Amino acid sequence: MYRKNSKKSKKNDDFSSSKTIYDELKRNNINYNDLVKFYKIKKVFDEFKEITPEIIKKFEEKIEVPVSIFSKKLSCLETVVKYLRENLNLSNKEIAKLIKRSEKTIWQAYNSARKKYSSKFFIEFSKYYISVSVLSDRKLSVLENIVKYLHENFELNYSEIARLLYRDSRTIWTVYSRARKKYGKRK
To answer: What is the pLDDT at residue 125?
Structure first.
């Protein structure tokens, strides 16, 4: 008995003829004009999906983190993740893609940051901004990327970077020399 019913339902699911499509639209109270609009929207959406990687790349280049948000309480990774998550409303998946870390790492950093610093960052004026694309270099840690970027692009000395990031200047020197060694002493 079940087999007979399933064969009948398969015949009804065949939409090869236009009359069957029209009957299906009528049965589901779908207006033909609405269907045409739907397919036009679908076409635009499909075209957008092809353009999306280019848009995302431009978007990634424009996301910048103000240096003024760093504090003693949080690590650099926790600070960046918390800022991107709460102030820019990005998801863990989007953040992981941006800085090329695993979603699990992002989740852990955000939860840890939330426990240490529960309120949202108040963004003060900052003279220096760090592009998120800088942090995507997996050869270096987040702190190494930040220190290297600030030292080489803004020509800040170690004590200035230390003051901005709330770290000891000896730590900054060590981090920068480690980053230089990883890149074969290139500046």
So the answer is: 87
